[in-house]
Design a protein that fits this description.
The structure is a single chain. This protein is 15% helix and 32% strand. It has 121 residues and is an alpha+beta fold. It has a domain of 81 residues. Strands 1-2-5-7 form a four-stranded antiparallel sheet. A hairpin with a 5-residue loop joins strand 1 and strand 2. The longest helix has 13 residues.
Length: 121
């Protein structure tokens, strides 16, 4: 097996693994804790991150898919541009650096993404 040399520079995107937990005391006591993972994606790296990955894709049906329609704004507009426009509209400052997203993908064609966090640099 040969190493993948298509990536000349290291990526900023990463996979984060952790736990989520919840505890409620009223009206009934209830708690849970379970493992989860989320992807931290540099939006400029999407094509590189998903390149030659048969389980993951941005363009075709796959077990795990980044689908633009599942995220903020008009799907016809690039996601980073939608985020930059929102930040500019709300703050008067347009970010010029990377836009990164902590999120879940669409798995088995099903989207359950209770939170997406955008990091604007």
């Amino acid at each position: 097996m040969q190493p993948d040399t298509t990536l000349a520079m290291p990526l900023h995107s990463a996979l984060y693994i952790g736990h989520v937990q919840h505890r409620r005391l009223r009206p009934l006591q209830h708690q849970f804790r379970y493992r989860l993972f989320m992807l931290y994606l540099d939006l400029a790296e999407l094509d590189q991150v998903f390149h030659k990955r048969w389980l993951w894709s941005t363009r075709r049906a796959a077990l795990a898919r980044f689908d633009r329609r599942d995220h903020f704004g008009d799907p016809a507009v690039p996601l980073d541009e939608s985020v930059r426009a929102l930040v500019e509209r709300e703050t008067g400052h347009r970010p010029t650096g990377p836009i990164r997203l902590l999120t879940h993908l669409r798995y088995f064609a099903y989207c359950f993404n209770p939170i997406s966090i955008y990091y604007c640099f």
